[in-house]
Amino acid sequence: PEKIFPSKLILLGESSVGKSSLLLRLINRQFYNYQESTIGAAFFTHTIHLDNGAVKFEIWDTAGQERYNSLAPMYYRSAQAAIIVYDITNKDTFERAKYWVKELQINANSGIIIALAGNKLDLNTIRSVETDESRTFAHENGLIFMETSAKTCVNVTEIFKAIAEKQQNN
Ligand code: GTP
Ligand code: MG
Predict the structure, then answer these.
(1) What is the per-residue pLDDT across 101-136, written as a single tens digit (0 to 9) for each?
(2) H or E segment at 22?
(3) Which family does it belong to (predicted)?
(4) What is the per-residue pLDDT across 79-90, written as a single tens digit (0 to 9) for each?
(5) Ligand 1 in reach of 21 Cβ (< 6 A)
(6) pTM of the full predicted structure?
(7) Radius of gyration of the chain (CA)
């Protein structure tokens, strides 16, 4: 039988960047133009099958609104992986993403795998965060980096797969 490795994963990032939308695209293959803002946090599971076993992600989708920020440590403390999401059309959300990277580097498990997702790639024509800038930041901090679109389904499965592969190679 296939070996299954559980992995706790947290999604972090400013409100409205598309954390819930990425998950709904991954799990339900759907996208909503009027996705409701998350209250507190929501829990999902999703299994990625690899050649040498499967990774079962136990996912906490956190709420990005500022009033929920103090809850984040409760979710990232025991996490083995994190996806930090920003919106490529909104520079402030990239600054917020950098803040979360630092916070995890200081306070999360030392072996945590962190991925950076520049979401809303379908809005490329009105981007305000250049790919090179994010890629450089990701490289300097040892992060997996991809630009994604929950709307047009770009790099959604791929970013989870990259995390699963990195975890299995550790
Ligand atoms: P909080 O739950 O408040 O933290 O927000 P969130 O990060 O979960 O964002 P959510 O998934 O609710 O998406 C916010 C808005 O962005 C919704 O209107 C989505 O339809 C839209 N959105 C999400 N992903 C994309 C994307 O890839 N492209 C475009 N164009 N819009 C997106
Ligand atoms: Mg949400």
Answers:
(1) 999 999 999 999 999 999 999 999 999 999 999 999
(2) helix 19-28
(3) Belongs to the small GTPase superfamily. Rab family.
(4) 999 999 999 999
(5) yes
(6) 0.98
(7) 15
